[in-house]
Amino acid sequence: MEYEGLNEARELIESSSNVVFLTGAGMSAESGVPTFRGKDGLWKKFKAEELATPEAFQSDPKTVWEWYDSRRAKLRTVRPNAGHYSIAKFGLRKDVNIVTQNVDGLHKKAGSKDIHELHGNIWTVKCTRCSKKSENYDVPIKILPKCECGGLLRPGVVWFGESLNQKILSRSSEALSKANLTVVVGTSGLVQPAASLAMIAKSNGSKVIEINLNKTPNYGLIDLFLIGKAAEILPQMLSE
Ligand code: OAD
């Protein structure tokens, strides 16, 4: 399928030396990872305040861990899609950074480098007592998992009401300040501060392309909008 705006996008891509991809759940949709909003989104079936807040974990860590365990079980079965792979391949010939809200680790699995995971990674755990972070790929995970210090482990992701990791945020902002081109892929643009990053890129002089199934709140600031699936558009847009 020939997408409207594809040739213009390819020209922008080829004339840019430094590109940032700002990705959200739509990036992994074709891998079979559910998005959060939209008709089949996770937040249609589950209540974020009962599963993805520090208060929810404090009052009912078992329910929260069971939900993360079920998501980890699902993620264990999925693979990066053609969109993830095309970004990884593109990173071999241009200076590429990926700033993602996804916790699924699929950009890394596809072979990309310089990935900034704003909302953490579902394959990490963090101790609620000593704050030590570690990787954990157990599926199913032992509920309730404990740190060697005896403290309760929690998922190593950022929940509603929590601040983003400042180092990751500042590395993301630095990458965006250098970008000639920012490609916003598959995010509803509703969750802050991630949602402001496209605006920051634009005000730093970057061109902005967006790929999504629908228009988003970014629409007013972008230079070029491509409507369609990330896993189909990205490989065509990024091929040499
Ligand atoms: P959302 O679920 O809010 O939005 C997904 C976006 O992807 C929507 O704009 C869809 O139109 C678009 N989309 C769906 N399928 C697509 C496809 N195949 N190709 C291109 N676009 C597609 O996901 P995010 O914006 O990533 O945070 O959500 C942001 C944060 O909200 C998440 O990181 C998570 C969630 O609550 C936390 O849990 C802290």
Strand and helix layout:
Layout lengths: L5 H9 L3 E6 L18 H4 L2 H4 L2 H6 L1 H16 L5 H9 L4 E6 L5 H5 L4 E3 L2 E8 L5 E3 L17 E5 L8 H13 L2 E5 L11 H7 L3 E6 L11 E4 L2 H9 L2
Parallel strand pairs: 1-2, 1-7, 2-3, 7-8, 8-9
Antiparallel strand pairs: 4-5, 4-6
Can you describe what's shown?
By secondary structure, the protein is an alpha/beta fold. Helix content is 34%, strand content 19%. It has ten helices and nine strands. It has helices spanning 6-14, 42-45, 48-51, 54-59, 61-76, 82-90, 106-110, 166-178, 197-203, 230-238, and strands spanning 18-23, 95-100, 115-117, 120-127, 133-135, 153-157, 181-185, 207-212, 224-227. Bound molecules: 2'-O-acetyl adenosine-5-diphosphoribose (OAD). 2'-O-acetyl adenosine-5-diphosphoribose (OAD) is lined by residues 24-26, 29-30, 35-38, 41, 52, 101, 119, 158-160, 186-188, 190-191, 211-214, 216, 229-230.
Going across the biggest sheet, name each strand in turn: 3-2-1-7-8-9
Distance between the termini: 18 Å
* Helicity, as a percent range: 25-40%
Computed structural class: alpha/beta
Elements, N to C (H/E): HEHHHHHEHEEEEHEHEEH
Low-confidence stretches: none
Strand segment tally:
9
Mean pLDDT: 96
Strand content: 15-25%
| Ligands, ions, cofactors | 2'-O-acetyl adenosine-5-diphosphoribose
Short summary of the structure?
With 240 residues, the chain is an alpha/beta fold. It contains 10 helices and 9 strands.
